[in-house]
Amino acid sequence: MKYNKQLIVALDFSDEKACLDFLDQLNPDLCRVKIGKELFTHYGPALVSSVQSRGFEIFLDLKFHDIPNTVAAAVRAAADLGIWMVNVHASGGRAMLEAASDALPDSQAPLLIAVTVLTSLGEQELKELGIADKPEDQVIRLASLTADCGLDGVVCSAREAPLLRQALPADFKLVTPGIRPAGDKADDQKRIVTPTDALARGSDYLVIGRPITRADNPGAKLASIIEEIQAAS
């Protein structure tokens, strides 16, 4: 199995210095990184610039979900930061998804993906939200809508990846959180798989946070995951 920089390290830090010190232990040629709501709310575009200055491509994980005009403006603002990928919530509906896609017409624009069903949500949690379908069915419905609206891909569990690969265009990107190397804790993720299993199922990019960020030697942990991927037949 070939490694093509599919790993995205989730920067789940509350402190800028801790985040940047951590990044100094990683090689930007081996992974991309994800900046989420907590870090961005604390430090904003200045942190994005600091991370980029270290050579990292950024997935800005803010999950925009609002009226179409507001989301379109937010996506354009994210693109102005020079990021690699940005996301919205597929549950925002067709008009919102199309507005977001239309806001990024340039070929140099970041990848635009949508969140389907959060990996922390299982069947019982969906029922509490008034959704009777199983998570897999809801994922397929939202992913199909996302593709139809012209976005580049979706965030999904690798468990749904084979079904999505059958139903969606071959170049449609599948970004998979909830990845845990064999033997690592599941933490609060309910639908998890290993890195090699996720890629074998059809995922394009793998988001891994705590197994790397909390490792005693993050660089070595990252390298071990890459070795595991490369060793898979």
Provide a concise account of the structure shown.
The protein is of the alpha/beta class and 233 residues long. It has helices spanning 16-23, 37-53, 68-80, 94-102, 123-128, 135-148, 161-167, 195-201, 210-213, 218-231; strands at 7-10, 32-35, 58-64, 85-89, 111-115, 153-155, 173-176, 205-208.
**Low-confidence stretches at least 5 residues in length (pLDDT < 50)?**
none
SSE run? EHEHEHEHEHHEHEHEHH
Number of helices: 10
How many E strands? 8
Proportion of beta-strand residues: 15-25%
Strand order of the largest sheet: 1-2-3-4-5-6-7-8
Rounded to an integer, what's the Rg over CA atoms? 17 Å
| Fraction of helical residues | 40-55%
Q: Label the overall shape.
A: globular
CATH architecture call: Alpha-Beta Barrel
Tell me the name of the CATH homologous superfamily. Answer: Aldolase class I
CATH topology: TIM Barrel
Nearest-integer average pLDDT: 92
How many strands, which pairing sense, and closed or not: the largest β-sheet? 8 strands, parallel, barrel
Structural class: alpha/beta
Q: Tell me the number of structural domains.
A: 1
Please write the CATH class name: Alpha Beta
Question: Can you walk me through this structure?
Answer:
The protein has 233 residues and is an alpha/beta fold. The chain is 42% helix and 15% strand. It has a single domain (7-231), classed as Aldolase class I (TIM Barrel). The protein is built from ten helices and eight strands. Helix 3 packs parallel to helix 4 (94-102). The protein is globular and about 45 Å long. It starts with 6 loop residues before the first strand and ends with a helix. The mean pLDDT is 92.
